[in-house]
């Protein structure tokens, strides 16, 4: 029962509305970060910059991993969004432990002046502050990967040091500031930005993290602090792993080697404190142990296709048979800035990674890793299937306490029947659901007639946790709903479940208010003129199969039998037939028999048949035509029954699109607008016994360069990660 952590790998960090974001999630457990989870449900969410939920999905966890696609909604404003993933058990430890990735959606301004770019440069002195008379390393990070290049100058314009730009929105400089001086970053166009104020007295920490076994640390102090007792502490996730008293030489310099085997993998906070525990300097450090090495070499073939030879080894050079997630992106016209290219050399890559950690830009560093065994309070249990919480009412909005409810659940592949009993508050729970894709739920109970048999249900779901990211200090609370109506809240205990005190909130119940005079017949959907219309005669009603008799081209097979079937003419198109009940599309597998069981013939007002372009409004679901059934509105009789209120759509495990299908169809229909393009995505690329695998790809027209990003985490927690530019 250790703490869990999710590590995310996505195919892109820049997307457009209606685009698909592909991801691979690794669920790690405990201090050793082994890839295993007692849960089999992963929840993924897209949040806006304020923490409001945009869309969520559920995905299955298998062997400590989960993978899938996430479609960006069509109507989202351009801007920064956040993609995160977590298990229900992780809720016990708080949202600050969730892994969150920043996703840019929409157009990006390409042309930008240096002056505007410089306004978004942040400075990160290695020890937390610039100190006069000491050697200081200053890391710099810009917005949107804008190059950070120029010079460090003093207030008289004298050049003090140059700035090294690493091409990924990260730069650094080393210099010795002087007491009472002001310093600036000057860009090559002459614009400048002031650096942090220089402190007269203090300490500096410089770390060389390139060695596999230890981190070399150089500490320097002002002469005023030479007689002070100073201690170097190493802390990770609230646990202190070492405290070492520092002995300085006469110049105020000390060198300390930090053994990596004595600290856990992940983020280590170094702090230099005095006897009163006052902090004089601090610095984050990312510890990697038993890291797997991933080497990528281009392979030229005889055809126009390019190839990549990938090899995975351990720290001793032994081949590793493992499963990789691979993203291959291309940039138009050789523009690689948005791809954040890492150097293929292991030591150089470690150096850049360390700079990004210092600047808070390294996405591979989790905010917190799983050190805790048990949370302070267990309020959420493991989840081994989907769940549904509801409160039951009859069609007169009267509560149904202590009532047996029959639930018919239909998906594309199966039909399930469940029975539950509500408690004294009309609440009930379904647990352990293994439903793929969209499902329809119909709720019924015992009654004398149809109206008393049908049950209306208000669904409840877990409250969305607030968003916490490394760049957003405040926890943005979710706006629960745009409606001003009161949203009821109940604890999971109220449903008599075994899930403790889980906080859940009710979804809005849609309320219809009559603002116009009732129509004799309900209007056609989208004002489309149907190909054929059949009206029911309330005085001499026909069965639903009989209503189709006489419609040109439509055949009813097995009329009068227990399993009649319907076929539309070839002019309707080739593909599935979509049934739509009072504007609500039913699941693809719905057939004529299920319609007869769902809608009594007396309630049918009319049936409309749509072919070809008329049915195009419903997309590929109606490739073979659409049949729209309208029930009576209640204007003609007081005996009208609103069956839609007993029907709910339920989102099961998300059915993700395969990348090959996306690449062949979806991505070709949208404009790229000069954004980086995902050429290839494979979340389950396997190396052989030699630790090797070969991947082939082609660059599309207009794209001259690409970058490959690879990640792997073995079951025993060994991790590997690399990025490499593939230039012409």
Description:
With 728 residues, the protein is mainly beta. Among the domains are: 118 residues, Immunoglobulins (Immunoglobulin-like, Sandwich), CATH 2.60.40.10; 114 residues, no CATH class; 109 residues, TonB-dependent receptor, plug domain (Ferric Hydroxamate Uptake Protein, Chain A, domain 1). It is 7% helix and 40% strand. The longest helix has 13 residues. The two termini are 50 Å apart. About 9% of the residues have low confidence.
Quick structural gist:
The chain is 7% helix and 40% strand. It has 7 helices and 48 strands.
Shape: elongated
Q: What is the class of the domain at 293-341 and 658-726 in the CATH system?
A: Mainly Beta
For the record, the CATH architecture of the domain at 293-341 and 658-726 stands as Sandwich
List low-pLDDT spans. 110-118, 334-344, 365-371, 471-489, 497-501, 505-519
Structural class: mainly beta
The H-level CATH homologous superfamily of the domain at 293-341 and 658-726, spelled out, is Immunoglobulins
> Helix coverage percent of residues?
under 10%
Strand content: 35-45%
Give the terminus-to-terminus CA distance: 50 Å
**What is the strand tally?**
48
- Provide the gyration radius in Å: 31 Å
Q: Mean pLDDT, nearest integer?
A: 81
* Number of continuous helical runs: 7
Q: Predict the CATH topology of the domain at 293-341 and 658-726.
A: Immunoglobulin-like
Strands of the biggest beta sheet: in what spatial order? 10-12-15-14-13-16-17
Give a short account of the largest sheet. Answer: 7 strands, antiparallel
């Amino acid at each position: 029962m250790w703490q869990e952590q999710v590590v995310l790998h996505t195919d892109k960090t820049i997307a457009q509305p209606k685009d698909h974001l592909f991801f691979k999630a690794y669920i790690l457990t405990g201090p050793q970060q082994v890839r295993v989870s007692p849960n089999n449900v992963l929840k993924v969410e897209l949040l806006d910059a304020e923490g409001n939920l945009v869309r969520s999905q559920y995905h299955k966890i298998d062997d400590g991993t989960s993978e899938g696609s996430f479609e960006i909604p069509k109507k989202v404003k351009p801007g920064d969004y956040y993609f995160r993933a977590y298990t229900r058990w992780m809720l016990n430890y708080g949202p600050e432990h969730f892994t969150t990735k920043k996703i840019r959606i929409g157009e990006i301004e390409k042309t930008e002046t240096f002056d505007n770019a410089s306004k978004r440069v942040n400075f990160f002195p290695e020890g937390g502050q610039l100190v006069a008379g000491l050697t200081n390393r200053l890391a710099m990070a810009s917005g949107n990967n804008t190059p950070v290049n120029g010079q460090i100058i003093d207030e008289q314009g004298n050049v003090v040091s140059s700035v090294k730009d690493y091409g990924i929105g990260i730069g650094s400089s080393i210099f010795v500031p002087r007491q009472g001086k002001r310093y600036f970053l000057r860009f090559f166009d002459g614009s400048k930005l002031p650096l942090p104020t220089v402190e007269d007295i203090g300490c500096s920490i410089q770390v060389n993290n390139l060695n596999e076994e230890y981190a070399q640390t150089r500490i320097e102090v002002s002469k005023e602090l030479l007689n002070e007792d100073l201690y170097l502490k190493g802390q990770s996730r609230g646990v202190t792993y070492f405290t070492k008293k520092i002995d300085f030489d006469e110049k105020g310099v000390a060198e300390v080697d930090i053994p990596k085997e004595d600290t856990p993998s992940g983020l280590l906070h170094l702090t230099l404190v005095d006897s009163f525990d006052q902090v004089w300097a601090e610095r984050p450090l990312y510890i990697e142990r038993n890291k797997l090495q991933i080497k990528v070499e281009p392979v030229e073939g005889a055809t126009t296709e390019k190839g990549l030879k990938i090899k995975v080894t351990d720290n001793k050079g032994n081949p590793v048979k493992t499963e990789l997630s691979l993203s291959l992106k291309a940039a138009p016209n050789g523009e690689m800035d948005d791809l954040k290219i890492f150097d293929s050399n292991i030591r150089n890559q470690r150096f850049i990674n360390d700079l990004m950690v210092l600047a808070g830009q390294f996405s591979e560093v989790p905010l917190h890793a799983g050190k805790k065994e048990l949370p302070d309070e267990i309020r959420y249990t493991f989840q081994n299937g989907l769940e549904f919480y509801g409160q039951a009412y009859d069609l007169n909005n009267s509560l149904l306490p202590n009532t047996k409810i029959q639930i018919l659940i239909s998906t594309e592949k199966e039909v399930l029947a469940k029975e539950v009993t509500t408690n004294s508050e009309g609440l009930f729970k379904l647990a352990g659901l293994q439903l793929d894709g969209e499902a329809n739920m119909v709720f019924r109970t015992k009654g004398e007639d149809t109206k008393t048999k049908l049950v209306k249900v208000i669904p409840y779901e877990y409250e969305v946790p607030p968003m916490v990211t490394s760049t957003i200090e405040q926890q943005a609370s979710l706006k629960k709903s745009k409606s001003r109506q009161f949203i009821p809240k109940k604890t999971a205990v109220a449903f008599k479940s075994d899930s403790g005190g889980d906080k859940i909130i009710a979804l809005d119940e849609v309320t219809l208010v009559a603002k116009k005079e009732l129509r004799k017949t309900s209007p056609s959907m989208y004002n489309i003129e149907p190909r054929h219309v059949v009206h029911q005669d309330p005085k001499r009603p026909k069965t639903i199969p009989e209503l189709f008799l006489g419609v040109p081209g439509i055949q009813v097979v097995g009329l009068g039998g227990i399993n009649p079937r319907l076929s539309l003419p070839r002019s309707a198109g080739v593909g599935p037939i979509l049934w739509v009940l009072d504007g609500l599309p039913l699941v693809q597998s719905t057939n004529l028999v299920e319609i007869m069981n769902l809608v009594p013939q007396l309630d049918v007002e009319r049936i409309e048949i749509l072919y070809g372009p008329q049915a195009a409004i419903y997309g590929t679901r109606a490739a073979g035509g659409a049949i729209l059934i309208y029930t009576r509105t209640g204007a003609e009789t007081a005996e009208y029954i609103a069956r839609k209120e007993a029907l709910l759509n339920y989102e099961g495990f998300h059915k993700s699109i395969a990348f090959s299908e996306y690449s062949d169809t979806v991505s070709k229909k949208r404009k790229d607008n000069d954004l980086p393009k995902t050429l290839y995505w494979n979340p389950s690329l396997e190396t052989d016994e030699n630790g090797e695998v070969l991947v082939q790809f082609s660059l599309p027209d207009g794209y001259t360069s690409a970058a490959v990003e690879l990640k792997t985490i073995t079951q025993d927690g060994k991790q590997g990660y690399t990025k490499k530019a593939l230039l012409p």
